[in-house]
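My main concern about presentation is that the manuscript never shows what a single data entry looks like. For the editor and my fellow referees, an illustration may be useful. For illustration, here is how one protein appears when written out as sequence plus structure tokens:

***
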Amino acid sequence: MTLEFWRTPVDLSDAGAQARLFDGLPHDAASLAKVVQGLLMHEHIAPAYGLTLSAEQHDQVHTRPVEAMLESIVAHDPRPLSAARRAEERQIGVCRHFTLMHVAMLRHFGVPARARCGFSAYFQRGKFLDHWVTEYWNADARRWVLVDAQLDARQQELFKVAFDPLDVPRDQFLVAGDAWHLYRSGKIPPDDFCILDLKGSWLIAGNLMRDLAALNKREMLPWDCWDPMPPPNAAVDHAQFNRLALLSSDPDAHEAELRAVYSEELPVPRVVMNAVRNRPEAV
């Protein structure tokens, strides 16, 4: 396992000209998650905070790079990032934005971290909802730890979360490869993997592609689509996704092959389909 690869921010996780904003922040995963929660607001959970979002705020969820997210945050409020913004003043995103910001901060301080795309068991009873979390290397425990940087105290109460969001159990968040294995083995029906009105094996396959990209430091939007992702309700090439699930379920054991599969066979193209906006976008 090469931890060094995960210490460096690149591409979408690189704060670029805004990296100085991270200086002075705490270095540990728990404190940084708290900082992230003071900067961002989840688009679909905003009503739980008494908020009604404007069209302009909804549009913020399509921001891909951390650098652009930070530019927007400090343009609106130039205070240090450690100063929690009021709920109505926060940058709007979804789970992927919380995760990417957290990963970017950890990498800035040299902590090995990666974004993981998969499914959570804790938002809707009996269902596994499309979700992203941070996976970072805990040097003291000598293991990778899952952190849900989105789950502040309000959300922990709202969703009755009974575990520590700073160490999410592996049966509460399934990386996409594990979700695929459970579906293929018949242990969990494919329609139990869902988000809004979307569900099924094609959705798991799409998250496998996004997780593959994230494991190569290309953390896309949850609704970015590119070949060979199957469209909604389409048949899935099981052989191809069986292979991706095997590799991504244990990325450290298959590091070289994950890099090769991504770079030589399945890279994120320069233009992807934004399925929410229903238009191609250059990335």
Summary: The longest strand covers residues 128-138. Residues 3-282 form one domain. The longest helix spans residues 95-108.
